[in-house]
Amino acid sequence: GAVVSQHPSRVICKSGTSVKIECRSLDFQATTMFWYRQFPKQSLMLMATSNEGSKATYEQGVEKDKFLINHASLTLSTLTVTSAHPEDSSFYICSAKRGWPVGRPPDEKLFFGSGTQLSVL
Amino acid sequence: AQSVTQPDIHITVSEGASLELRCNYSYGATPYLFWYVQSPGQGLQLLLKYFSGDTLVQGIKGFEAEFKRSQSSFNLRKPSVHWSDAAEYFCAVGGGMRFGAGTRLTVKP
């Protein structure tokens, strides 16, 4: 089945540094990737939608200069948390939507990465 | 705008008992609906999805869900819960993948 690899699974960094999280689709082309953050015991909140080769679409309230998203290829999207602060500490999850051949019904199934726990000291 | 509501934050059931987790959605057209399960510190696993057709959907691990347009609901059910089912469950509506707040399931021995 389709697999999405997300790295790192856990990262601890100092306040003011930048952290990059990678999301790779291992055996399919992901035309669209989504980035979420999840606070403890809360739901996933969609941060942005990333389409290959174009700028990401950010949800209201999400700072695009803070959370840089790059979707340079059909198998890789990255989220960079710039100048991280303790309030950025969270669980970040990516998901990928598989591209579907023309003429076939769309598949809205998403494939999720295993998440990245970011702790900013 | 799409939105999903899960009215129950936490549910406790005894092992072997039946389970129903509620999900209500708001969407202008026929939605794509999903149920996901998340174990602590883990990503999400798809249990089942509804796109169209038969309103009773069968999923993995013995779960099923029924789409009821008149009630704007997509409740998740399982006839007999196992201890390993304890986890967080999320209902989601497709397109932009909006998630409900989640329902934490505790299973009593």
Task: Jot down its keywords.
heterodimer, A: 121 residues, mainly beta, seven-stranded mixed beta sheet, four-stranded antiparallel beta sheet, globular, B: 109 residues, six-stranded mixed beta sheet
List the helices and strands and how they pair.
The complex is a heterodimer of chains A (121) and B (109).
Chain A: E1 4-7, E2 10-13, E3 19-25, E4 30-38, E5 44-51, E6 57-58, E7 67-73, E8 76-81, E9 90-98, E10 110-112, E11 116-120
Parallel strand pairs in A: 2-11
Antiparallel strand pairs in A: 1-3, 3-8, 4-5, 4-9, 5-6, 7-8, 9-10, 9-11
Chain B: E1 3-5, E2 10-14, E3 19-21, E4 24-26, E5 33-38, E6 44-50, E7 56-58, E8 64-68, E9 73-78, E10 87-93, E11 98-99, E12 103-108
Parallel strand pairs in B: 2-12
Antiparallel strand pairs in B: 1-4, 3-9, 5-6, 5-10, 7-8, 8-9, 10-11, 10-12
Summing up helix and strand content along with how strands pair, one would put the structural category of chain A as mainly beta
- What's the shape of chain A? globular
**Rounded Rg of chain B:** 13 Å
List the secondary-structure elements of chain B in sequence, H or E: EEEEEEEEEEEE
